[in-house]
Every structure is written in C-alpha cells, then in structure tokens.
What does this fold into?
Amino acid sequence: MIVLVLNAGSSSIKYQLYDIATGEVLAKGLVDKIGMGDSSLTNKRVDGDEVKLEGEIIDHQAGIEYVLGVLISQKHGSIKALEEIDAVGHRVVHGGESFHSSAMINDKIIKKIEECVSLAPLHNPPNLKGIYAITELLPDTPQVAVFDTAFHQTMPKQAYMYAIPYSLYKKYGLRRYGFHGTSHHYVSRKACEMLGLDYQKQKIITCHLGNGASITAIKHGKSVDTSMGLTPVEGMIMGTRSGDLDLGVLTYIIDKEELNVKEANTLINKHSGILGISGVSSDMREVERAAEDGNNRAQLALEMYDYRIIKYIGSYAAAMSGVDIIVFTGGIGENAERVRESVCKRFGYLGLEFDQEKNRGLRSKEAVISTSDSKVKVMVVPTNEELVIAEETVKVLEAAKLRKN
Amino acid sequence: MSYTVEPIEGYGIKRREQPLVKKNRYEFTKVGIVGCGILGQEISRMVSSHGIEVTFVEITEEKIHQALNSISTDLDGMIEKWGMTFSEKRAIMSRIKGTMNYEDLAGADIVIESVKSRSRESSVDLRKRIFREVEKYISPDTIIATNSTTLVITEMSSELEYPERCVSLHFLSPADKIPIVEIARGLHTSDMTYEKVCQFARLFEKKVVAVVESPGIISTRLIAPLINEACEILMEGVGKLEDIDDTMKMGFGFPLGPFEVADKIGLDTIVRWLDNLYKEFGDLKYKASPLLKKMVRANHLGRETQKGFYRYNEDGKKLTDSK
It folds into this structure.
C-alpha cells in the first residue's frame, strides 16, 4: 500500500511517499515559494537521487501537479503510475470541535473544514487547497484528513474552557483546542512502546519544543490538557511568541502604544518570546551561544524559557496526580541537552533521577535519559508527524473497508 | 547518489487547455505609480506589502530618494509600533523602485496617477500629459487610474488611444490603513477595466464604494465643506481651534478634528478642491474661506510645511501646545 502525505502551508507543500508494507519512505520533498518568482520543488528519493526543479509554480494546485509529475517521472520517480497511490493523507491544522479523530474526506467533511477557517485563518486555507487539488487531480483516490487538534478533543471541559462569558464560547467557539496533536500522540505512544508499557495505564507529559512549543498531559492514552489554546500563542515561551501573558499587560500596551489588533497580534507573535527578551535571536542555539559569551539578557531568556516548562510540567503532574513518563521532542526537545537537563533537575521531589551521561551529546535519537531506578522515566523521542499521518490514513481506510464489508 | 537542478517544465501531469490562472481572475504582478508624494508612498507601501512589485515615477533623483527614504521611515515606525519585523521591511523595500523614466512602467498591470498640482487648469493639462506619456509604454489592457476626485476622469482620458482603460480609483490617506476606496467610472471606462480595478482594490481588503463620476465624489465633497465651515466658525470667534476639533472628535467620534484633517491633507489641496467644486457646482458653500486662502498664501500648509492650524515636527508629529 502506498500513501502520499501532504502538509500544505501558505506558500509551501511538504510531502512524503510511504510504502506502508515496508515502512519505507520512497520519496520526500518540498515545494517552496509557491506563487513567488523563484519557486522550486526539491525531491529526494530513497536511493539518494535528489533533484531540484526550478520554474514558476503559480499555485498549490500546480505545485501538487508537479509533485505527482516528479513521483512518476522516469528520471526521478518512485512509482510508475499515479494509480499506484492508494491514498492521500493531509495534515489539517484546525478541526474545531467537529473532529475527534482523522476523517475520510468527502464533500461534507470539506465543508466542515471550511467552517473551521475562521479559527485558523492562516493554516486551514492552504490545507484545503491541497485537498481541492488532489480531488481534482486524483478524483478516485481516497483522501484522509488528520487534524492537529483532534488528539486534544478528549480534554475535559474544565481544562478547555476559558473563564470568559459563556456566551462567547457559544457564539465563536472560543476555547482551548491545542496543537501539535499528531506529534504528542505519536511520541507518547512510541515512548510506551520503547519501555514496553501499557499506553492506557500511563500518565505522560510530552514536551514538543520546536519553533512553536506546547506541552500536553496525557492520562491513560488521552490528552487531558495542553498548553496551546485557541491559537498557538498560549503557553510556552517560544522563538518569537510570548506564550502565557497577563491579559492586562496586553490591554495596557494597546492603550499606551496605541496599537491596533494587527499590531498587537504581531507584537505577541513575532516580536516576543526568546527574541524579545534576549534581543539576540529567535534561534535557541544562537541565544545559548550569546549566554555563554556573557550576554545577560540571553541568559535571562534561557532561564525564563526553562522555568515556563518547569511550571507546566509541575502543574500537569498535579492535574494528573502524578507522572510516569516525560517525553522531549521537537527541534529543541530533541537536540538541546541543556534545556532537558535544566528542566529535569528540578523534579527530584517527584522521584525523577536524571542521567546526565545519557543526556550528554544526545541529538535526535530515541533514548531514555533517566536512570534505571528513576520513578519518572525521561525520554527523547524524535517526532514524525508525516509517519503518523500515513498511519492514520491507513487506519481510516481500513476502518471504512470493514464498515463496507 | 546524485543531485541535479532542472527546469520544472515537463514535470506537470495534466496538459492544460487554459493557463493556470483562473477565469475572471486577473493577476497583478507589477504596479506603476506616477507621483510619489505622501499618498503615492502609502500606496507603494501597501502594494509592496502584498508581494507585488512597484515602480514609481518622480521628476528628480532627489524626489525619488526622498520618497524611498520616507517609505523606509514609515516602515521603521511600524516596526517600532510592533506592526512589522525587520525582514518584512527588507522584503517590502526590495520590491519598490523609483525612476524618472516612464519607460520603466512597461509591464505594469495598472498605473496609478497620484501627482499634486497647484491650479485646476494645470491639473487637468498635467494629467492629460501624464496619461499620454504613460500610454506610450504600457500594453493596451493596462489600467490607468487617477487618484484625483475633483477632476473628472472622462476629461482626463479624452485624448488617449484607449480611453476605456481609464478609471478613477480614490484611496484616502493613509491608503494602507483606510479600509475604503471610491471607484468611479468615466464615460469611456469599460466593464472589464472596472471589474479589474475593483478586484485590485479588494486585494488589499478594501471595501469598494462604487460611485458615479461626479466632482468630489463622496469623500471630498463632504470633507471640504466641513473644513471650510470650521474655518468660518473659527473666524467668527464662536469657539477656539482645539475646542472645535474636540467637539467633532468627542461629539461625533471623528478620529481627527476638522483642523487636524486639514493640516494632514494640506491646506493648498483643500483650497484647490474647493475651487474645483465651486467651479463645477457654482454653489457658494464651496467658496474657500478667506482664512484658508490667507494661510495658503503664508505657506502655512499643514504637516507638510510643519505649520498649519497646528505646528509639527519634521516627522509630521503634532507638537503639544502647538498653535
């Protein structure tokens, strides 16, 4: 079975072609700068063949046409005909309250995803463009939508509601939805698999620390709380996002600096976080280097970053009355040994014994980084959202087949 | 293992009968602007922010330099106000080019005229000349739009080879912030031109107000007499300057009072608008107040000269206690 996974952004499309039987990635690539003058498509085949196609790619539909074209091309292709693609899995950022799991795409589902556009105006429209394009180009191939928000739909109401007038929840659907769902789901399951533990019996805290960052409390296989909210700006301190902030601070700034909504939004999304505090960069590595060179603000940014994670882990341990496993993933979670150490050292009182040796130099590899006696296991599990999307796609297809039979 | 770079053509899967551009959807990849004063700069900034190339024509190297500088300063102001990042600014500036040659407008999808002139007679002649000059270098389906309101597009386009491409596209200042545009068709304006220019305006999330060609259309015809009347009230000694402004701001929710608006627009412009309106309609209510005329003669034109009804610093910021 061959599954094509698409992750369409505002001006880019990431894709991977999976052979499910062997678990092999046959090809993967990126369509970049769609609609701009210097657009391109880079395709990497499993055997190492790599090609960059340059030329005008006017929109998402054209981008996907070229993706399909290169996948079946004689020179750089991985399959012979488009009919070999058994299904297409799409990443869809926001599924609102409509989607608790992945869904087979049909007109009704498309309409529901369209209804969620107001909740994710930057993300859902390009996701939809990917779906429209495949619908036109491969009309007979089944498609599955895998939502970033779906995994978090199990949160209890007390965790997802905001303490603002209830009527606003009713009117606009304003509540916590959470993001990175496929990643939190994947790494938590994978961690249990590695440890040989029953996923349905563990209390897990997953820290997805990348450009965006979120932490999720997973109790007995279900997301019960997560740090991102209606939008991805809540929770952790991120590269350029503030994360949690006293709302009064924002209204104060809006008043004093006479900001409009767009400016206020840019302030908390693009000028804040690690960049805003350090004044150095939004890149963790550069800020760490600056701190080593004695830059006080860079040092402060790191301390604040770690402290926010510590607070969330503590509160989620409280929310679940304990924690069995803490998982680090995402660009920073997988690579920044300093962050992992600084955070984990603070949880001795929970019975966490951190293994500095195992942590040292560990980059993007699955590993346990707590001692064998540690009551709380700490792990690094590289995330693989594309793989989850491919697996979900297969799962949904098989369920549909079963229903038919 | 191999790494190659190839052209993308030949990798598509569907041969298209039609180009990838959807029907009834026009593409805008280059916008020409003639006259890059404050409004021209605002339009340039707005258009470039949307990823579209801008080429503006000015009459001297110095003015080109001035315009680019001023756009850059405005963007800095937005960064300072958290509305933008440095890399966004770099991208916006890289898409704006200034020139003294009309030839460089070649390839534009729309050319917007936003020049400032002194008297009505010179205004019409000047614009006719500009339109003719522009037409030499652009393709027949490129739109020529004017930002003026008190001069009618039919007259300005009368001597063109393709007058059906002309339309009045009126942005209010600041063009990138005010969410409304007035679009008027002239006698010759074709349906396609009109539809295309409406689509252009909607690219910037503007509400399009469709108007019939008429001097001053809506905005100028309402604001000019308001400012004029405010001057009369002030001259008669009924109230103080700030109090008149405050009354309109607090009483009616105007973001700026009539004198603040006047200083922003430029008193010379307002007098010219009033003169044009008076000439067209012959109604005394459009006769420019002696106070306005006196101030224009004294070159107290508003923000532009740092002195109008109020005083301003070099960046156009109102000075407190600035009468």
Observations:
- Chain A has two domains: 2-147, 195-240+272-385.
- Chain A touches chain B at residues 35-36, 40-41, 47-59, 61-62, 65-66, 68-70, 72-73, 82, 137, 257-260, 262-264, 266-267, 270-271 (CB under 8 Å).
- The mean pLDDT of chain A is 94.
- The first strand of chain A starts at residue 2 and ends at 8.
